[in-house]
Amino acid sequence: MPSSVRLQEMIRVIRSARTQGEERGIIQKECADIRAQFRQGDNGERSHSLAKLLYVHMLGYPAHFGQMECVRLIASTRYSEKRIGYLGAMMLLDEKQDASLLITNSIKNDLSHSSQYVQSLALCTLACMGSAEMCRDLAPEIERLLRASNSYIKKKATLCAVHIIRKVPELAEMFTPSARSLLSEKNHGVLHGAVVLITELCKHNPGTLDQFRKAVPELVQIMKGLVTSSYSPEHNVAGISDPFLQVRILRLLRILGHNNDTASDAMNDLLAQVATNTDSSKTAGSAVLYETVLTIMDINSESGLRVLAVNILGRFLLNNDRNIRYISMTSLQKIVQTDHNAVQRHRGTIVDCLKDQDTSVKRRALELSLALVSAVNIRSMMKELLIFLSTCPPELRSHTTSGIFNAAERYSPSKRWHIDTILHVLTTAGGDVRDETVPNLIQLITTASELHCYTVHKLYRALVKDISQQSLVQVACWCIGEYGDLLLKGECEEIEPVQVTEDDVLDALETVLQSHMSSPATRGFALTATMKLSTRITDNVDRIRSIVSNYSSCIDLELQQRAVEYNALFRKYDHMRAAVLERMPVMDKNSPGHTNGDTSGVIKETDPSKLKPVEAGLLSEPASQVCDLLDLLDGTDTPLQPSPAPTNNPTTTSSADLLDLLGGLEPAPVLTETVYEKNGLSLKIQCDKQTDTEVMVTLIGSNSTQNDITNFTLQAAVPKSVQLQMKAPSGNVIPAHGLGQVTQTVVLNNPNKVSLKMRIRVSYSNQGAVHQDTVQIDSFPSPTCPPSVSPL
To answer: Does the pTM of the predicted model rise above 0.85?
Structure first.
């Protein structure tokens, strides 16, 4: 039976195996026969046995015992054996194995062989698995073959030179002279290899850019020849002449024209010709056009040419192929900041892509739509985004809500529109918003004093309708507690008023307190709102007292503490209840706790001279009552000294004391160090706690770019003797323009008291590009200083 049939018969038997165990048995038997053939020496069957072993290797079974047989077959003088030997070397050997060094001399000899086919075998093997040592030894031979007259050998030698440059970048200068001369070749294979080689030389040795920029006219002529050439069946793909070579030339032109006016001017006409004459109905034409667009956007091109490139991407958005639509939106995302008006012309098409069934296309369309929002189109774009929010996949809701909030804050035409938009988002996707949304909305409501009545009426209706959206319920409870008197009056010009009784409001808050859907934080909002209503209603104070008393023994400690303190206000300090439960003062936009980590602002204090008579009377309590209030909070028996009265108004001592109740607490200085700053992302480290055996640090990420940073993750590694615990991060999206931060706490347990070091891997996406960097931290900042408390 012929040898080739035996290989076919083995394949047939293996494929006919019904179970994995039966297949393993067949493989083991065949491997035993192959080993026996290898031991018999030169019997003419070694190459066929190695071919069978390579098929076994393709199935995933061990075939390492055939490595030395590959070395022997490569040294053979027969072409049939040499071919199988080189194939086996490429499959079974790699640069990490010592056996690969044994074939270096054979490859060197075959590179000088008289047969071009033997030379090509050696070139392919070196380009596939050549190690750095092999590349250094054989680089002169490859440089010699680059000047050969045979185009077949020259093509393979070019690709082998590319592999050598990637393995040993310092050898790049050896191939620079030969690379330029290869551009005069007529063979497309050699031209393709030459363009790839020049591209690698420019990437690994930027010093050669000026030298190769002189070849831009030559590259332009080659490209023009491809664009205007007649039909060539050898190179034609879907009506495009050699699109692979065109794409490679365009990529090289992009590198040569970057930040260089002379090179850019030389290729402007060519790029316009390619952009207007290439048929985009086929995939090959779309690939050439896409590379043309990227080249136009990366060089110093003319403004008209950039508009043409954006229009090409706009046509891609209408393509039925989702992959083409995806790469189109990815490219538009990168240029939307520099060519905003040109991209705006395709806003309608981009918004339509939000309705696509593919989640990846939806995500790209969402990011691009958010980038297109401006003060001019805020109303129309927000309408489309809110429609998308109601139907978008769960994995996109968080990103959508974040983008809507940022856009509304930057471009809102009025405060009422801003509040309505945020309430719409909370009603639709309240469970997917960021943690800072509630305090930010509360701050916005407090500053819009003319909309307090409108807001409390609207939030009350939303609360009665649905209590499942926790963020919405928290804001509603806060507003009812602060402005419950406006709700009970039933007078509102901006919205149709609803007659609400005191019992109705308390019923709504009690429903929130008793609901299994309410989180502990939401119950805290509801309990505080109930307590605040005790100073805003008249007939149901006893009911409020009863509700608060019920939670004095609550299993939740936070809720229990609040209830106990509120009960103490009723029993022991009822004369102070009205002053303690006053409306919150208006807060600055940048006050602590109400922005995304910005602590530069302060809370506006109420000027006592501008208080109404009743409010001033409530604040003018004896100093001893202030001590009583402090005693309620900390239970201390130490007598407290009132602060000195202002010299300009000695009659307002107690009022100033009460207003300055928390004013003596100065913010503790926090020591942070910047450990990473790149691509607009800044990562700082802050030491929160440090003992002999434990260190607790917080990593703080902020974003100064114009786009949100997404998929932000941190990974940490420490020495083996140190125990590492990473808490859950506050999120994975860092808002643009420094409007937010992402924090993550790391606890290091160091029982052996070794020198602490930590390596952090930072991964994130920005404008469609994925970035990953590693940071080494050899020292940690000192922990936060204790707060400085001023005497009252």
So the answer is: no
